[in-house]
Here is the input.
Amino acid sequence: MTIEHILDKLIFRPVVLSRNYKFKFDAPFEEFFIFPENDVSLNFLKFSSKNSKGALLYFHGNKDNLNRWGKIASELTKYNYDVYVIDYRGYGKSKGILSEKSLYNDSLFFYNYIKDTFKPNKIVLYGRSLGTGMASWLASKVKPSKLILETPYYSMYNLVGNFLPEFFFKNKLKYHFNTYLHLKNTEFKIIIFHGTKDEVVPYESGQKLFKCINNINKIFYTIEDGKHNNLSKYELYWEKMNEELK
Here is the structure.
């Protein structure tokens, strides 16, 4: 196994589902496929709000598939947004060859599909962990009403450097996800949530990203003792989400 392959396995941890798999959620939902290229199909779910005031596009983390992330994303319909969550290539029922460029292009294709129903000023982008890279790139292109980032990283190079010596991955990292470049000069509102005890994306990485953003319309919410996958267990998270999405 090459170093490049090891690095890819660290970044992406998909769980594949058969095309016939039936999702089950407590909230009502619809399932769709979109086709950005030949031999590429992307699976996504829509959770509708009873009194929708817009759309929230959710870009999930690096593990599992929509079976997990659909449940998490569906909780955000309480803010009266229709919530859309997509599986990346190779995740769940989605098919296609993965690359950084394809992840960006697919996010734009997904956005344009939703844009046929909602105007840009009615669309919120939400990125979590790995998905903060795609959400940030997309936001820089389409200028949404606001961008919410949960446990974001400054860049993938910076993140991997927290766990591996540089000589191991220098010039071998195929995925850069330079989030800081996408958000450096922006005008739309940017909201960041990060826990002080995040064991996957260090709190300092989120702080470093926040400090480099030249935008007065930004805010950083610190979740004391919060870890990577449990911010929704803290009252502060929901309190601030309610303020930002009301």
In short: The CA atoms of residues 64 and 193 lie 22 Å apart. The chain has a mean pLDDT of 94. The two ends are 49 Å apart (CA to CA).
